[in-house]
Specification:
The protein is mainly beta. Helices cover 1% and strands 59% of the residues. The protein has two domains: 380 residues, 7 Propeller (Methylamine Dehydrogenase, Chain H), CATH 2.130.10.10; 88 residues, Immunoglobulin-like (Sandwich). Strands 13, 14, 15, 16, 17, 18, 19 and 20 form an eight-stranded antiparallel beta sheet that branches. It has a six-stranded antiparallel beta sheet with strand order 2-3-4-31-30-29, with no helix packed on it.
């Protein structure tokens, strides 16, 4: 039978996956359903700031620690402005908003093929300074303008260093047979006394950036992609792991060069617990369902350990964090949407390997080190926190796997669907329906059933017999109070 790594909702809007429990703290809804999320971060007092991109504006919303909206403001966009990233940062006793946008070939000539940086003072929402620079994208195809990958801030004594990572696109020739390339860069700026200055452009380092606090250097990932047209078809990828110092001009050292396409290429460690003592963990995955985990030393001068990790599906890394358990703080947790793994940073062993009902898209760390897990579902953001410390057995042998198959038909359905499952032994069974917020809608059975196959019908109603609205629902099977499987169904009216 197919093996299912299990995860379930339990009472009081909690998620139980193996030995990790997440409690739903609050739910946030978009102000406008057409808003596109571009930033989600914690600021002082552990308030949440969300940045949204809309057709004519970008919107900033400040949420309190209970999810209530504290304030909102919007900024008018220029014609053809495409907002890519935004970030809140503190410097010299003030809070600022920085935004990065790009403009395509058809934009105003003064902004054509350029990246625009705007900095706003948050107290009165006024623009302090703006700066635009050439992104080296001179083609006219739709993919010629750059993609901004990140904005990172490194506060110095007298100035804030701003790093903008982006990919450039460039094509020469006709659309039917262009010669093109893509590269990643970092634009490095100084911000001080309401002025911004471009210091330098660093090549092949613009995918990710992380400060190495022990030596004040930076680790960065980048790439080059070169591909020809129909007459001379070829394509090659070069990916780079590089380190550069905090000087201007920066001294750049290439740690590794990988010369084939990667579906996923990211830094898993976040520098909070162990990166300064246990190194930096890099995740590299091609199209195949095998990923390379490489743990580098603090200064990236040597590889501490390296191994291959089997990965199901094609999902990319969506969130990761260094995390503490009952066995210490030498662990790392990463998510690929609804799939997750817990890794021992010392041995490299996989400790937990499971799945949850919906994706974890962001992990935030509060001022007291508490973690928040954020799930983006359509127009709703669910914010969860850990319910107690993660429990890991001393022999790392706590992987919970059940041999249960479960499905429903039809799916989508209206007005009813049949849920089928099989059990290997006579067992006490509980089969329940939950909504997208983790609230129990109806319990279909709580009985002892004989081994074999069983089917139950859900008529799309709640405990009172009232029909529920259209949407996504989850059905959870509990076997003898501990072994569980969860599946998703869609009610369409």
């Amino acid at each position: 039978m197919k093996q299912i790594f299990t995860v379930v909702f339990i009472l009081f809007s909690s998620i139980l996956f193996s030995q990790i429990i997440l409690n739903l703290d609050y739910t946030i809804e978009k102000i406008d359903s057409s808003d596109e999320l571009t930033n989600f971060q914690l600021i002082e007092n552990d308030d949440l700031i969300a940045g949204f991109n809309n057709e004519n504006i970008y919107r900033i919303v400040n949420y309190g620690c209970d999810g209530d909206t504290l304030y909102t403001f919007s900024v008018n966009k220029f014609d053809n402005e495409d907002l890519e990233k935004m970030k809140i940062f503190s410097f010299d006793g003030n809070n600022y908003l920085i935004t990065c946008s790009n403009f395509d070939y058809w934009s105003d000539p003064e902004l054509q093929n350029r990246i625009l940086i705007r900095i706003f003072e948050m107290e009165n929402f006024t623009e302090v300074v703006s700066f635009n620079f050439d992104n080296n994208c001179y083609g006219w195809l739709d993919n010629d303008y750059p993609t901004v990958n990140f904005i990172e801030i490194n506060n110095q004594q007298d100035n804030a260093q701003i790093f903008v990572g982006y990919n450039e696109g460039w094509c020469e020739g006709y659309a039917v047979d262009p010669w093109c390339y893509e590269k990643s860069y970092i634009a490095k700026f100084n911000f001080s006394q309401s002025e911004i200055q471009l210091l330098e452009i660093l090549p092949n380092v613009g995918l990710e950036l992380q400060l190495i606090e022990s030596n004040n250097n930076f680790i960065s990932l980048g790439f080059v992609h070169d591909f020809g047209g129909l007459e001379a078809p070829y394509s090659y990828w070069d990916y780079y792991i590089k380190v550069f110092d905090n000087l201007t001009p920066a001294s750049i050292e290439t740690i590794s060069n990988i010369d084939y396409y990667k579906r996923d290429f990211t830094i898993l460690t976040d520098g909070f617990y162990n990166s300064n003592s246990m190194g930096h963990l890099i995740y590299i995955r091609p199209e195949e369902p095998i990923a390379d985990l490489i743990n580098y030393s603090i200064d990236l001068s040597e590889v501490l350990w390296e191994r291959e990790e089997a990965e199901s599906g094609m999902n990319k890394i969506t969130a990761s964090t260094e995390i503490s358990t009952n066995e210490g703080n030498h662990f790392l947790l990463y998510f690929r949407y609804h799939l997750y793994k817990l890794i021992d940073r010392i041995s490299g062993n996989t400790i937990l390997n499971d799945e949850i009902l919906f994706p974890i898209n962001k992990i935030l760390r509060k001022s007291n080190d508490e973690l928040l897990f954020v799930s983006f579902i359509q127009d709703i953001f669910n914010v969860y926190s850990l319910d107690g410390e993660i429990q890991v057995s001393a022999d790392n042998n706590q992987l919970s796997i059940t041999n249960i198959e479960m499905s429903n038909y039809p799916n989508p359905f209206n007005p009813s669907t049949t849920i089928s499952f099989s059990i290997q032994n006579n067992s006490k069974i509980e089969l329940s329906i939950f909504n997208i917020k983790g609230q129990r809608i109806k319990t279909l059975t709580q009985n002892v059933l004989t081994k074999g196959s069983h089917s139950l019908i859900w008529d799309g109603d709640d405990e009172s017999g009232k029909s529920v609205s259209s949407g996504i629902y989850f059905y959870k099977l509990n076997v003898n109070g501990k072994n569980e499987a969860v599946k998703k169904c869609l009610l369409l009216k």
